[in-house]
Prior knowledge:
CATH class of the domain at 154-329: Alpha Beta
Strand content: 15-25%
Structural class: alpha+beta
Radius of gyration: 30 Å
Amino acid sequence: MSDLQVAPPRGMRDYLPDQLRPRLEVIERMRRIFELYGFQPLETPAMERLEVLSGKYGEEGDKLTFRVMKRGAELKRALKEVGKEGSGPDTLADLGLRFDLTVPLARVVARYGASLPRPFKRYQIGPAWRADRPQHGRYREFIQCDVDIVGTDSSLADAELIALTIDVLTDLELPPFEVRVNHRGLLTALSTACGNPPERFFDFCAALDKLDTTGREGVESEMRDRKLETAKLQELWELADMRTYIDNSSGLNQLVDYVSNFVEDAPGGKEFLGNLIQVLEFVDWLHTPSEMVMFDPALARGLDYYTGPVFEVVMRDRSMASIGGGGRYDELIGIFSGKPVPATGTSFGLERIVDLMVEHGSLVTKLKTATVQILAIEGGVDFVRFSGRILKFLHGKNISCELPYRIDSKLGKQIQTADKRGVQFVIIIGPDELREFGIKVLYEEFPIEAAKVTVKRLADGVQRQLTLDELVAWVKEPIPESPDSVG
RNA sequence: GUGAGUGUAGCUCAGCUGGUAGAGCACCAGGUUGUGGCCCUGGUGGUCGUGGGUUCAAGUCCCAUCACUCACCCCA
């Protein structure tokens, strides 16, 4: 072996068959529900022009975007600029790997505008890249499962996405989780009501967002560091303490009253609150388990582009960071198209979901390969002729089947190898079978399904002499569970 | 970007206060001629992440470097 580093790049993974299968299964199950709700698939390139990505995710987002170098003459020219005044990380780059799937969607909507149906309901499942430092549940390449509704400002759309989120995760039988909901506008009003100027809003969010992890002291010092107004902290704590699941109607009313008073004088405060209440009401009417939904007035979420209701999925035992979330972003598309288009969306992190399921043993990774494998006791042209016709026949019956490439090892060895690969049945062909059918199969008019072969079911070792038609029927029977009886 | 921990066979790891490497699993070959999952026997496989230093002698001590893991930040 050479000294070449053969591990994948930091934070990125290879998926061997056993790991990939459950991932694909989870994707299939999610896709089914997306379609159930009437969403349509979309795919966009892995890369975007750098200017499309820049400035959409906040300062941190720009830093974590993977940049792709310019090429050819452009690169030569750019290299001369390096170090000069005004040159920066973008001097050498003109493309970037997408940071999420929402911004590419916004770009698509701006590009194809009128030709898309309105509302445009689309889902997209594909990788996104962030140059973050990897840790538990965090990768540099990860699959996002994004579901968005473009072209309506209806609160029903927001509510529907929350309902769908819970549906999907419930269907996957995830360990206990809950959805926390808040409203970005409400946070703005809160920040204003605390006495902060509008431009400090993102600092306010960042500080407040720490409440769960660092507690009050953490938030307070964070606010001081960021030079935010701390006069109304006491009220803020009271407010945060009142967060409640929405099935608790008295608690909810109390919270709503408190928020209402808090943001009374802040511009738009009451409307935002009304808007959020509407969403929560719709969530309930969509038959979503309301004990899983919490109104958390301190929930902030990081991405810059959110403007309305926002929500986040958290595990009740905190064994994993947020596995999904979303919100309304009514201004993002306008950046690309010039005219505002309302939109709202949700997204799931496939890696985190699959990791959780694996950790909780709810995903059984089972080996699987061809159902039937044909084994040879003796080599030679006749074997290939005979088994070639069997192969073709079984494929025609939609039964996966493969041939061995080595026919010189012992039969026991071959069976063992087949079993390890997850093969369920083996057909054994040796001198006896070849003697009886070896010549006949040369004639196309000889019905191959009439040929009798020796078939062994590996799960329980039962072995039979069957025609291929009988074999097909046997393969379709349920496979016995206990493999302890030796055949 | 900040902090902590780990780095010994394909995998999981052992190797006490320094004396030139071990186990289990996996893999390969056998336990007589067309039959697996148990058992038994034998075997392949490691310049102990990399580079430098201390020492008669380093996997074991020191420095550097890289990689991985975890936490902060941020998020899926």
